## 1
Amino acid sequence: MGRRPNPQRKDELLDDILRFAQENGIGGMSMRPLSDALGVSTYTLTYQFGSKDGMIQALVERIHEAERGQTYNAPGLSTAERVQALFDDLRTEEGESFHRIRLESGIAIGLRTFRDVINAETPERVSGVDPRRITDSSYSVLQGSLLWATVEGLIVDWLSSGQRDRVAEAFAALIADLDQTIDLNSPQRSTVRG
């Protein structure tokens, strides 16, 4: 029986692969240029991850794990504060790079697989909804899903259109509307104020 891959080495490689992907993207990533950039052999990558697909899947999981630690996912934030923190993060060079690779990773492994990775917590991730505090959960999930789609659309717009002022205005309008109209953390149920 052969030696098992070293989990610590795998984690170190994943950190390096994430940095490489943030600089170069995932779409055209191949083992040889990656191994050359990291100063390891293609055998090392194959040994640690099994295959390129295994490496990409591990990278997607690492990206998802890293996103959980972002400021906009901190507990106790209101929905508007969470979206504001996400937008503040997006406006930094590091945040823009992270969101670009996060979206690209979903495309690289196929949206169905990506959806499986993030689906269980998607509405809560952006909205900060605590499902234990809401009795009308189907309504809050609907609101969370609509908010998630809006925010993801604005992120794609930010990354692709180059129209930063317009997208910033759209984020500001969304955040103002959240402050005034939607309370996804209401103890009774998710409510729309008007």
## 2
Amino acid sequence: MIRIFRIAVPVVSFMGVAAPSMAAMLSYSGSLSGPNESPPNSSPGIGTAQVDYDDAAHTLRVQVTFSGLEGVTTSAHIHGPTATAGTGTASVITTTPTFAGFPVSVSSGTYDHTLDLTQASSWNASYLTANGGTPAGAEAAFAAALAEGKTYLNIHSSLYGSGEIRGFLVPEPATLVLAVIGGLSLFRRRQTCRRMTPERRPPAVRCLFFS
């Protein structure tokens, strides 16, 4: 017997942990380096990235700081989804040929820009096509990949065309807390629903049963 629960809080997962999509702001960060590339390289470059995904406003704020690159920057993107969380390579998800306004021809710099995810221009055209051909479809697929730890931010350079430094995006502590709260909330609702007979079940709690 499979029970499907129609409740007010949709759920996404991060490595098996339920997260409420009602939490409008979800933050992820990554540590960028050459050894994090695939295959790894010996670049002394380092960097940090933070992305803040607002699933109510449908925006993605991208903040990056980097320094010490051996080459000079040519582009930067978010890639995904990889087959396995935290490893592997994947195609570009975000704007091509690079993030709008990302500093190029430099070995160090900072970046802070917010993408409007309702715009087709915020997505790689091939990613958009592969996910229903709409920004909404692309956003849903991206949110799932992000929550599953299967996306990474990659900075490409003149010496490392496939990427000089990169880092997988993992949830900030506050986002993990929201995931745990969402999981507990869903568990409590599920248990309550199981104890209720249809006659006693409030209209706000609807349980649909399929065999």
